[in-house]
Amino acid sequence: MTKFEELLSEIEESEIFYIDSDSQKNPAKTIKFDDDYAIVINASAFPTQAERLVALAHEKGHCDTGAVYSNATPLITRGMCELRANKKATYRLIPLDELIEACLSPWNDVWDLAERFEVTEDFMHYALELYQDELLSAFADSRDI
After folding, report:
1. What is residue 20's three-state secondary structure?
2. CA-CA-CA-CA torsion for 32, 33, 36, 38, nearest 10 degrees?
3. pLDDT in tens, 68-106
4. Of 6, 17, 34, 69, which one is least surrounded by beta carbons within 10 A?
5. How many CB atoms lie within 10 A of CB 128?
6. Same domain, 98 and 73
7. How far apart are CA 71 and CA 55, in angstroms?
8. Conformation bin of residue 144: beta by default, left when phi > 0, alpha when psi is -120 to 50
9. What is the C-alpha to C-alpha distance for residues 57 and 63, in angstroms, rounded to an integer?
10. What is the pLDDT of residues 33-68, one digit of tens each?
């Protein structure tokens, strides 16, 4: 089972509605109604499996954190919602312990790491920046500095 299929299964178990709609103008969005969530994805907007996975994890991050906004929401709040969704997606797709293990093994560049975790290179850059302090600490510990 691919990570994308695992995430779809997780979404289904969470009772989040998943709608794949090629007619949607936005590539991906999360909708909240009452206490329920729906993730609407235009799969044709994402040419690669990695892009679809990252988008789906990001939208699930909105559901998991409750960080959903409307067009009337102030930009600063939108930014905070996006940050929460990105962090949640990163924690889901690239667990810190697995990233440390991957980085401590023989040298991998960002492209190799992205491929290993089935994400885009941009998302891997984001994860490396998010985990920067933990990675530096792990490298220092591994070298007994």
Report:
1. strand
2. -50
3. 999 999 999 999 999 999 999 999 999 999 999 898 877
4. 34
5. 16
6. no
7. 19
8. left
9. 10
10. 999 999 999 989 999 999 999 999 999 999 999 999
CA distances from 79 to 68, 84, 129 (A): 11, 9, 17
Q: Domain check: are 47 and 104 in the same one?
A: no
Give the separation between CA 101 and CA 134, rounded to whole angstroms: 12
> Where does residue 9 rank: exposed (0-12), middle (13-18), buried (19+ CB within 10 A)?
exposed
Q: b/e per residue, 21-58, with b = 16+ CB within 10 A?
A: eeebeebbbbbeeeeebebbbbbeebeeebbbbbbbbb
Q: State the residue range of the domain holding 121.
A: 94-145
Whole-model pTM over 0.70: yes
Domain assignment of residue 67, yes or no = yes
Distance CA 53, CA 71 (A): 25
Q: What is the token pair recorded at 52?
A: 């679809």
Q: Are residues 12 and 70 in the same domain?
A: yes
- Domain assignment present for residue 89? The answer is no
